[in-house]
Design goal:
Layout (H helix, E strand, L loop, with lengths): L2 H18 L28 E5 H4 L8 H13 L3 E6 L3 H6 L5 H8 L6 E3 L6 H12 L3 E2 L20 E2 L1 E4 L2 E4 L3
């Protein structure tokens, strides 16, 4: 197994634990009691998931922008999809000159923290995105063609798997969604 494949496999395992591990009761604040109709464990992926390459999408309007990112997330959400946004470790520096955690991006985007992942420094986000999308048979919102990864991840060659778009004059255009 080559180094990028090993990194992708490890990142994929981490994502599976992240989404399927039950939320411990100790993490709930006293005022946040679960309604009786809600299951006690977090039940995997959100409804109608789609992967969003956050580090790529924030550049759709030119310079990296939280506004662009939020408009694309809003557009996807209005289409009844639940975005799982994955960022490079350096994404926060591009937006606010500092490292940003999943919690920081959750506040910035108004998405639940469990739907955001900031990969660790030194981990290639592309490999994590492709591994996660492959494992769960999900589409990816990005303008990246992932050509360097086509040998390891055949999904990049599948028609309709990568959804390209742009953000111009306040409008999101997303092909194939």
């Amino acid at each position: 197994m080559t180094s990028p494949e090993l990194i992708a496999a490890l990142a994929g395992v981490a994502l599976v634990f992240y989404f399927f591990w039950p939320t411990p009761k100790s993490k709930l604040k006293p005022k946040q009691k679960r309604p009786k109709s809600q299951p006690k464990k977090r039940s995997g992926l959100p409804r109608n998931p789609i992967v969003l390459d956050g580090s790529n999408v924030m550049f759709w309007g030119g310079d990296p922008s939280a506004k662009t990112l939020n408009h694309v997330i809003g557009h996807i959400t209005q289409k009844d999809f639940s975005p799982i946004v994955i960022f490079d470790a350096s994404a926060g520096y591009r937006l606010s000159d500092r490292f940003m955690t999943e919690g920081d991006f959750a506040r910035l985007t108004s998405l639940p923290e469990k739907q955001i992942l900031v990969v660790n420094k030194g981990v290639v986000a592309d490999a994590v995105i492709l591994d996660f999308a492959s494992e769960h048979n999900l589409r990816i919102v990005t303008n990246d063609r992932y050509r360097d990864w086509s040998g390891s991840f055949p999904i990049v060659r599948e028609k309709g798997r990568l959804l390209r778009g742009d953000f111009k004059q306040g409008n999101v255009r997303l092909n194939g969604l």
